[in-house]
Amino acid sequence: MLHPLATNADRPDVTTQVDLSVFYGRVGAIEGVQLGGVASYAARDVSGLQLAGGAAVTGGSARGAQLAGLSNLALAGLTGLQLSAAVNLSSGTTQGAQLSGATNIASADMDGVQLAPVNIAGPVQGLQLGIVNIARHVRGVQLGLINIADEVDGAAIGLVSIARDSVHPIVWASNLQYMNAGVKFTTRYMFSLVGVHYGTHEADFDSVGLTLALGGRLPLPARFDLEAQGSFTQLAPWRHGMEKKTSSWIAPQLAVGYTFAPHMRIFVGAGVRLPIDVELGRAVSRPELLAGLQL
Fold first, then answer.
1. What SS3 class is residue 216?
2. Residue 13's pLDDT is what?
3. What's the CA dihedral at 149, 130, 57, 93 to 10 degrees?
4. How confident is the model over 128-157, as pLDDT tens digits?
5. Which helix (H) or strand (E) holds 191?
6. pLDDT value, residue 206
């Protein structure tokens, strides 16, 4: 029922195939199933299923599944599945999946999938899917609002993706958005961009706006590259007393770049700007030409 009020009170480190408890169960190792109403604890390894209403904890490795209402802890690694409402922690090598309502942590190698609002891992081979993803070296995909890694060999897809040497100021001009500046977050093959602009074809220099973009990059020989992106633009008047009209567009764009020095890239491109909701100017599609400098 509640250790040490248990059938194994005099043998707390016993290896067993089945352990059932109303509140707290404690054994040495599990080779089967451990079910606890509040908490389940195995001092050594778990091979099979560990299930608890609150916390499932093993001092060794978990091979199989840990399922808990609040948190799972595998202090010597995981091969299999951790599923909880709050926190999953694997302190050794992790192979499999961590699924949580709040946070997943794999302190060593992670080979598999992490799915939670916040995912934290050492080297990752697989997928991190959440709002915030943090890892060392990523071989696979980070998909979230904010992605942070030392190095990404794959794709980091999000509003802000930060890796080593990945944050680049950028300025550009176009025939539709006259003056633009922003920050570009790059990985080897993917990038995102957050920028502002001043002056447009529709409102001249009486408006300012925000640009968001997500795209991919293909390296070419001789320091050239090809980028394809989709951008979203929101425009609003800024002069005092002007009527508060706004407009928004999306634009598929292609650009060719040339890197002639470290942190010095020029690019030219073209695209089509498509109206979504236009109150300033005419709601028509327009061709766009652009050129700029990335540092």
1. strand
2. 67
3. -40
4. 999 999 999 999 999 999 999 988 888 888
5. strand 190-200
6. 74
Residue (of 213, 146, 226, 47) closest to 128 by Cα position: 146
Q: Residue 4 is which amino acid?
A: P
Residue 164's contacts (CB-CB under 8 Å, 6 or more residues apart) are: 150, 151
Return d(Cα 291, Cα 288) in angstroms, integer: 10
Please identify every stretch of the chain with a pLDDT value under 50, giving residue numbers as ranges. Answer: 1-3
- pLDDT for 240: 52
Decide: 21 and 2 in contact? Cβ < 8 Å. yes
Partners of 183 in the beta sheet? 169, 194
CA distances from 225 to 9, 195, 220, 266, 292 (A): 68, 21, 5, 10, 14
- The helix/strand/coil state of 283 is coil
**pLDDT value of residue 10:** 53
Return the pLDDT at 3.
Answer: 47
CA 99, CA 184: separation in Å to the nearest integer? 31
Q: What amino acid occupies position 270? A: A
Distance CA 187, CA 217 (A): 9
How crowded is residue 205: how many other Cβ atoms within 10 Å of its Cβ?
12
- What DSSP string runs through 230-258? EEEEEEEE-STT-----EEEEEEEEEEEE
Q: How much is the pLDDT for 12?
A: 56
Tokens describing residue 195: 């920028």
